């Protein structure tokens, strides 16, 4: 998980439409925070972001509405890791730079970590139902 994913999850409780949904999202945030140490968005990720953004116009889409997704992709690119997401279409056009793996998350979202066979951690992006993935 990267810091950008954690930021998206941290916004979730504040954007909920009911107190029960806010509580569920807050619980998820606490579980994820206790389970994963997020990869930072660092200087290497910032440099990768330029390459990631440059790939977007070829898809006919704007990078402006996809900033969080592109920051996640840049973090993955800088660390040589794939992106695991419920919404692989959000990363359309980036396959030359980062591997994007579509996953299905049970409801509520599992806090299982996704690990490579060599034990390295993966960037993952998996939101609660009713939120952006």
Structural summary, described in words:
Residues 108-115, 117-122 and 124-133 have low confidence and may be disordered. The chain is globular and about 40 Å long. The two termini are 13 Å apart. It has helices spanning 3-15, 19-35, 43-55, 67-79, and strands at residues 83-85, 100-102, 123-125. It is mainly alpha-helical and 133 residues long. A three-stranded parallel beta sheet has the order 2-1-3.
Question: Layout of helices and strands, plus pairs?
Answer:
Elements (H helix, E strand, L loop, with lengths): L2 H13 L3 H17 L7 H13 L11 H13 L3 E3 L14 E3 L20 E3 L8
Parallel strand pairs: 1-2, 1-3
Q: Helix count, per DSSP?
A: 4
Strand arrangement within the widest β-sheet reads 2-1-3
Report the C-alpha radius of gyration, rounded: 15 Å
Q: What is the helix fraction of residues, given as a range?
A: 40-55%
Beta-strand residue fraction: 5-15%
The overall pLDDT, averaged over residues, is 80
H/E series, N to C?
Answer: HHHHEEE
Major sheet characteristics:
3 strands, parallel
Globular, elongated, flat, extended or rod-shaped: what is the shape?
A: globular
Low-confidence sequence ranges? 108-115, 117-122, 124-133
Q: Care to count the β-strands?
A: 3
Provide the structure class. mainly alpha
Distance from N terminus to C terminus (CA atoms, Å) equals 13 Å
């Amino acid at each position: 998980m990267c810091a950008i994913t954690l930021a998206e999850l941290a916004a979730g409780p504040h954007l909920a439409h009911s107190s029960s949904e806010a509580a569920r999202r807050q619980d998820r945030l606490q579980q994820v925070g206790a389970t994963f140490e997020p990869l930072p968005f660092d200087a290497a990720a910032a440099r990768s972001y330029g390459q990631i953004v440059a790939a977007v116009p070829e898809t006919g889409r704007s990078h402006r509405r996809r900033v969080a997704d592109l920051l996640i992709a840049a973090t993955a690119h800088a660390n040589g890791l794939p992106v695991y997401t419920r919404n692989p279409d959000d990363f359309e056009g980036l396959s030359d730079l980062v591997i994007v793996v579509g996953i299905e998350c049970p409801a509520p979202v599992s806090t299982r970590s996704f690990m490579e066979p060599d034990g390295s951690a993966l960037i993952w992006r998996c939101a609660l139902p009713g939120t952006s993935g």
